[in-house]
Amino acid sequence: MQYSRPFLGLSLVVVLIAGFLGYGYFAKADTEAEGADKEETKQDLGKAMSSLDQTFGGKETAVPVKAGQVARGDLIQNVASQGRVHGYKNIELVNEIAGRLVQYAVRDGDQVKAGDIIAKIDERQYQLAFREAEANLIKAEAELLAEKVGSLPPGEDNNPSALAAAMAKLEKEYKSGLIAENDYSHEKLKIELQQGKVQNRRNAVIEARTVSVARVALDRAKLDLERCVVRAPFSGRVFEVQVTPGQYLSAGSVLCRLVNLDDLVVKAQVLESEMGSVRVGSKAVVAFTALPDLGALVGRVEAISPLVNSDEKTVEAIVSFKNRDGRVRPGMFSEVSIDAAVFQDRIMIPKTALLLRNKKHVVFKVNDESRADWIYVTIGAENNEFVEITKGELAEGDLVLVDNHFTMGHGALVRVVNKK
């Protein structure tokens, strides 16, 4: 017996519906763990019924989709790299003079400011040395004053005419070769001293021998006294405390480590082949594997090394950033994305909107009737998130499908559920 094609099609539809209904009937006995499968079956049945409605002239059902917006702006290509956090202000505080530790003002984890007292050394012997140096300076200044007052007493030897004649005679004898150079210099100095022409230099010699030496000793004693108090050279956090009050310390003993967690950078290793597009001042984004909840931190490229690591074929870029909440620590691993090439004022779409059909790029644009129009486009520059559209019927503000559109046909009715 032969049946008409419409009858066969209708029979196939009836069988399909009966299959779904039968499945739904037996699913009533499923356990609670199978509830999700039951709900999925109902959804499949709903889609099948929707398809039947369209086939037999029923109401068309819109396909739920996600859409992104066509934008105009700067498309920025990034260079990805990895690096480690480095702290420039990370030092060991040491005691510069020997003595007994009489006060230690910090513990591990304490936050200190620049100038805060870290430790104090017994200063009594250094106070005595300072007072002794003060006394020696006063004594030297008194001796210098006595020398000045007692110099060049008036007398016949200081007669200007006689001294001038003696100098002229000395010069004549020296030029004639009658006296040696050493004797000439000696006699000339004696006459100049008598004339008072080198009085200032004479005083300077005396002062250097007495007063200047005393002043240096006083400055050294003062410096040693100041070193009895160890202060924080910069603001930071104290770690690795290694001393105890009452302990005798030799010069150079390590007290603790001081780290400034605000002044941190990432030393990122950029591939040599990508280094040409990185510039000092470029924006950079850093993320830390150990702190996924912190999110990405915005920074900038502060410096670029002039050297290439020949083994790894990389160049070091210094990226500064603000350590939000002080959670980033020196030595942490980081992922870095540096802005490289910038293409200004471009029309672009999310990369997920781009499809490839028959070796051509295709985009589905949502029209005013909520239908997806199939549009061929030509692409240009791209980055990890966006792609430039150089040719195609797209304008700023248009909506393009970014999800659930791989098998969609031209003109399909859609319902945007999440606009990006």
Automatic annotation (TrEMBL):
SUPFAM superfamilies: HlyD-like secretion proteins. One of its GO terms (molecular function) is efflux transmembrane transporter activity. GO terms for cellular component: efflux pump complex. Residues 266-340 form the CusB-like beta-barrel domain. The keyword Transmembrane helix applies. It holds the Pfam family BSH_RND. Keywords: Membrane, Transmembrane, Transmembrane helix. Residues 93-253 form the Multidrug resistance protein MdtA-like barrel-sandwich hybrid domain. The keyword Transmembrane applies. The chain crosses the membrane at residues 7-26. Gene3D superfamilies: 2.40.30.170, 2.40.420.20, 2.40.50.100, Helix hairpin bin (1.10.287.470). Belongs to the membrane fusion protein (MFP) (TC 8.A.1) family. This is Efflux RND transporter periplasmic adaptor subunit. It comes from Acanthopleuribacter pedis.
